[in-house]
Amino acid sequence: MRKITWAAATAVLSVGMLTGCSSADGESGDTAKASAGATKDTEKKDTGKKDTGKAAGKKDDARIGVAGTACELPVSFEVAKGWKPAASSAEDAKMLAKLNGRTSVTASCVVDAKPAGLLGNMRVWTAGRTDKSPRQVLDAFMAEEKRVSEQEFSETKVGDLPAAEVTYKESSPLLDEPSPQRALAVTTPKGTVVLHLTAFDGGEYKDMLPAFELAKKTMLPAS
Fold first, then answer.
1. Domain 6-221 in this protein, CATH class
2. pLDDT tens per residue across span 131-173
């Protein structure tokens, strides 16, 4: 059971979910996040339900990662319907590194789930070095995570790219139980990438997972 309102939850999540640029309607990343709770409540009143996981898995005619898209990355992938990608500014990347104590990778892009009626995001972290395996990259990434438990690692491939994936739970003093999270690491000739799915709680995670799977299924080395 949730112990806080959506508005309060969003205020907490806004610290770790900076978009790095303004949204289309002129709101800054932090301002847009601060209004997520109110937006979500309004959507529920208007429609009686939020977007489902099935809807989140549909394509939105958007592939990011290549030159000329919202985010230029070592990989490209398709973005789920309603999700909004934005490049992370150098200032946001520096702030996130400081807040999270993260030095192994740098925040490069965030795909915001709020426009799809969900509370969370997928953040893309990158590093220029190519001498580490996906599992080594993921191990370093998880060593920087806090309040985690039940980590389960697996070795896999994403297309022709070697990859490693982890599912885990993250505790929060604001929730009765830990929230499931997921991360995928791949190595490419242009660098390493970690795709990190961050959801507010288990319900949001379930609804957001199809968007993560779409990104994973369609991921290719950026040309």
1. alpha beta
2. 899 999 999 999 998 888 999 999 999 999 999 999 999 887 7
